[in-house]
Amino acid sequence: VDNHINKPIGIFDSGLGGLTVFEEITKLLPNESIIYVGDTARVPYGTKSKSVVIKFSLQIIRFLIKKNVKMIIVACNTASSYALDECKKIFSVPIIGVIDSGIKCALLKTKNKKIGVIGTEATIKSQIYPKLIKQKDKSIKIYSQACPLFVPIIEEGWFDISHRKIINLVAEEYLSPLKKFRIDTLILGCTHYPIIRDIIYDIMGKNVEIISSAKTVAKETKYILEQKKLITTSIANPRYTFYVTDDSNKFISLAKRFIIGKNVILPTKNNTKVIDIEKY
Ligand code: DGL
Fold it and tell me: How many CB atoms within 10 Å of residue 231?
């Protein structure tokens, strides 16, 4: 019996951000088992060079393939910007990133054709968003802004009400130039940012549509599994396993605040393991 359809889906990010994608996938594909890797020892990726991000991504993909995944989602914009093409060349397992989905969504929403993109230094430096958007519609104006302090602040857990002042100040600084350009659509080009979506919304105002790619990525995942006839037939409870590359305590305690849905299984001591990713 061919049971490859019951293999897990692999998802990875530099840390917690990919959990925003994980959550949407569990909602849309509730029977699928998932292996999640958060490279917590080496987060952030967004300040690192292309060759380093490629090396890290390849190690994680090799690990996921050893774990027998049937598909891989690069739930990190930085790794998608720098490493997706490279990874697709090397491995035969279907691999998708998070950038195309966000772009697709933004192009559907914008009316004045002025789109803002925020992301890590690496993602913005790669120019991947303007490049891919221009390929689809030359008339769009794109305004990019790197927000390098967002990821460390979020990984520190400082996105709660008691740290509002700090994150507000930082967000104001990054976002006010974008406001001047009168964009009507803002792509959250980093999977960590949906967690501070309301702060960004408050600053940008209600006339700016805020796009995160998580939901669209989940839809694309479903589409690809259907196309390749890889949708699970298992009716047993799906298995979720989380792997981190540094001590799991902080990941477990912060993950609760990333996954907001009520029925989603959270990382706990029992389903979260520490791995040495350098071995792969
Ligand atoms: N979630 C990653 C991204 O989407 C975070 C990047 C980082 O680790 O700096 O880019």
Answer: 17
CA distance 25 to 28: 5
Our answer to whether residue 76 is catalytic in this structure is: yes
Q: Cα(119) to centroid of ligand 1, in Å?
A: 8
- 196 CA → ligand 1 middle, Å: 14
* CB of 190 closer than 8 Å to CB of 123: yes
Alpha carbon distances (Å) from 218 to 44, 213, 224, 266, 271: 24, 9, 10, 18, 22
Closest ligand 1 atom to Cα of 155: 8
> Mind listing the pLDDT tens digit for each residue in 206-233?
999 999 999 999 999 999 999 999 999 8
Report DSSP letters for 61-100, one per residue.
HHHHHHTT-SEEEE--HHHHHHHHHHHHHH--S-EE-SHH
**81-138: per-residue pLDDT in tens?**
999 999 999 999 999 999 999 999 999 999 999 999 999 999 999 999 999 999 999 9
Q: How many helices (H) and strands (E) does the chain have?
A: 11, 10
CB 231 within 8 A of CB 225: yes
Cα separation, 13 vs 39, in Å, equals 6
Question: CB under 6 Å to ligand 1: residues?
Answer: 13-14, 17, 43-46, 76-78, 120, 123, 151, 190-192
Cα 279 from Cα 165, distance rounded (Å): 41
CA 90/CA 86 separation, integer angstroms = 7
Tell me whether residue 105 is one of the annotated catalytic residues. Answer: no
The letter for the amino acid at 207 is N
